Amino acid sequence: MSALNRVPSLMARASTASALTIAAVGGSVVIPGVASDAAAATPATKALHIAASKKGSPYKYGATGPRRFDCSGLTLYSFKKAGKKLPRTAAQQYNKTHHISAKGRKAGDLVFFHSGSSVYHVGIYAGKGKIWHAPKTGDVVRLQKIWTKSVWYGRVS
Question: What is the b/e burial string over 41-71, where b = at least 16 CB atoms within 10 angstroms of the residue's CB?
Fold first, then answer.
């Protein structure tokens, strides 16, 4: 094989090696026509990641972040940072979401806890029956299994 015929092969290997090197050191490779994870993330997915990033933040009644939260303050803050506006309270947030079934729920949807027709708590669905939420006074933002069947789901549009 002549040196001229090997050039495309050598260039392909060099490009692959360069991409692997960039990836190994934590860089990113831009490929035309392929969205990056950040660009592909929906506002709901972004809000979920923002809520998770607040793990360990103390609960404080009436707080909307960035260091302390109540339940609806965490959802308000997370969606605001993801580019979506929500009202202040859990009940108001429920009234502003598109209501969905438990079977239709996705990570990033809101989970509303209710007693009868009254909504009293909200969290962000993380998948596998768990939510990110700010539970109560004396607790911190954390991931927790949904503990009751008295929940409704809402999708922020």
Answer: bebbbbbbbbbeebeebebeeebbbeebbbb
